[in-house]
Amino acid sequence: MIPFDANGAFHPKAGTDKLRSLAVRGAAVSVFASALSLLVQMVSTVMLARLLTPSDFGVVTMVTTFSLLVVNFGLNGFTEAVIHFEEIDHRTASNLFWINTGAGLLLTGAFAASGSLLARLYHNPLVTQVAVGISVMIVVSAASVIHLALLKRAMSFVDTSANDVIGRVVNTVVAIVLAFRGWGMWSLVAGVVAQQVSITLGAWWLCPWVPGLPHRTGRTTPMLRYAVQVYAQFCVGYSQQNIDNLLVGWRFHAAILGFYKKAYDLFALTSSQLTAPLNNVALAALSRTKQDHVLFRRYIANSLGMVAFIGMAASADLTLVGHDVVRMVLGPKWSESGRIFEIFAPGIGAMLLCTTVGWIHLSIGKPGRFVRWNIIAFAVTVSLFLTGLPFGPEGVAAAWSISYWTLVIPAFWYAGRPIGFKASALVGAIWRYSVAALAAGLISAAILRQTSLWATHSSTSAAFGAACIVSLLFLSLYLVFVILLHGGISPLKQLTGLLQELISSRRKRNSVLEENVVGELK
Hints:
Structural class: mainly alpha
Number of domains: 2
Number of helices: 21
Shape: globular
Oligomer: single chain
Mean pLDDT: 84
Strand content: under 5%
Number of strands: 0
Helix content: over 70%
Low-confidence stretches: 505-522
Order of helices and strands: HHHHHHHHHHHHHHHHHHHHH
């Protein structure tokens, strides 16, 4: 994609008549790519969990807890600015590129130099060397941010999604091959660096735009200010999401952090696979409807209903089968992670809803409100972490679940005030799914306590069989309660209709692609 015309103006613009089709197509591609990424990630997790030790994962987590905050300096900020602002030209994009890349270079050196400080914090000398290795991906990532943002502004989600999947495959292949060769924790370091190199090369190949020299445009400062606000919000949110790793790693040793991190990764996997892939699609679509508050509120309410439909079911089901899932995925030596994951699982539904709050703040151009809310959420969550820390990693996991359920309604009440989206609209969209999941979960647990399925299973095959039977029982009950509470199958029709639209959109895109190829051959 060539993003700018001969005059330097951004030209791949979507008309309002094509917005819905592009948004649906983008959602379809993002979800499909997310499913592929999940498959690749599961292969990586299954293999590496058996080749490496909890301590290997723990040491790398000690470093990535801080490095990912730095890596996202431009990725969260400049991306949203490029997508959100009405106009952007070649010179402004060039200015943003050089600012972001220069900052990435400085942050790379600073992070590499901070390795010794992190080693003293965690009382682990290996952290120093890992920090130097991980720092390389900071500047590599910075070089791809603006190119990827331009692709997303043009709603080229097919390209960006494919690029992400390829990067994940590269990470997996490199890490597994090196782990087989005995590299230990360094196989994880090499994998994440290789992934970022792959993504950056792919971004430049998909968007072969060469930045020009810096110029005054009058647009750079407002976009930079917006980006800083978004990144500030990200920093607060990221700190909220990762201070648990800091506390567990500081209070306990690397192996305990390794167990905890694997349980948390499975907990957060639902968000990364269900809502995170739709963030840029939702932002691009909702930003174009922000002037019509009635339409905007309807879109948000419908979206939250579908998120709750899936999220509440996942939350209750994984609470029942979490220990079996961990045994299947990670193996018997990770049973400690299974116990921790079962405590995480009740918060999955509320977590998925909370991850969509940013759709409102950013699409209506209120990143400052998002920052202020995340500061409040951070304070509440950290207080709960400190309360739970004396009880070990299980106490921190419980704090996560409690925090999400505590914050979900206030989060949407605050986010929706500028456009009249009330907390009652959120409750109206999700309460039936919450009640259905709770009722189905309690009845399933009461039934299972009388059978051998409730026990811990020693083999992977037994764990798989038990998880399938329990999930089938729960989902059957859940759908019955959903239908009863809605007085019909309207939620099922809505979900089925959305899936059909996603599939038809993907088929239509493939058909158009085939026609274009045939035309070129003729």
